[in-house]
Amino acid sequence: MVSGAETGLLLTDADLAADVEVVAIHQEYYGVPWDAFAAGDPPPPVWAGRMSGLATSARGMGKQVFLSISPLDGNRSSLAPRVRVVNGAEVTESNWAPHCWDARTAPDGATWRDAYVRYVEWMVDLFQPEFLNVGIELNLWDIACPSAWDGMVDVVNAAYDAAKSRRPGIPVFPSIQIDALYGLAPGSCPPGTDAGTCYETGYAHLARVKRDRFAISTYPYLGVVPSLDALPADWFFRGPRRGGERALIAEAGWLSTPVVAQASTGQCFTALTSDEVFAAAYLDRVLSDAQDSGMDLVTWISDRDLLIEPLMTDCGCHQSAAWCSVRDLFRGPPPTGSVDTQLEGELRMKVFGAMGLRTYEGTPKPGVYDRWDRARKVPVAAP
Length: 383
Prior knowledge:
4-stranded parallel β-sheet; disordered N terminus
């Protein structure tokens, strides 16, 4: 809900106790105490308290836990934001590490590799997960920072080893963004390269990545695939079947509303079109393919929408002062260069805003929720 001392999208448990068997904790929102873990010190108390609260909440529901963590920032081109104490206050710093930091060649390569391993160990001990993602959308780093790819694989493989020593019986893996693997995501394939070559190149780079599952992340509605009918028949199968691996869905979703955004010049346009019918059809495809291939986990990224539906299609802001302040926070100040940063900020807010099984207010979306509920009654296939 949008309230309280901090303006922004506040994440809650929503209706997880009633709606899911596995609670997904996607921890790339609160940063990493890199300095503390590098020094072997306890993490900052406010951050640690927030993590402890998440763990207590998840475990208190009596559900299994799927924990996703990452050494990467949201752009997958630098290290995750750093949390540290400055003048007695905890601060979160983005862009603190060099772009495309290389663990193999950087003087501090071993320092931050070992810090990430300690972070993973701390989180595993706290959350005691049944599923663990140690590198969210790892292959996007390969696209953004190809020269530093091997070094990041070293980091994530070290985290895998540490996690397996702590929880040897659980599946541990990084997730793989298959839109990029197919060469369909922006920047994932050189212009003029055929799709088959893109796939072979991307897949070959995964050979050294340690994993117990082929963990899929995918959001084809983000302009990668123009319609559900255009989604390749082997979209969820090609990668895992290639190596004889068992797959799971680490994160997936589809918007239930269109996205209307406003340029800094005031111009309004529809960036994406969708509705609940499209979302339900995509969820049906996800769940049907998951059942056919014996997946043991499907993660729909959001139980409730993060935004109210009117805001998704609002040009300008005609909602409450609280919602308009959230929109303005994401849009930021007017752009100073050629990139419309206000437009980009609003799009970043809205492209994940309406993917819930329920509306923001908590009402089940009939087609989407009913298909999810039917799938929960199907027994999980044995490994």
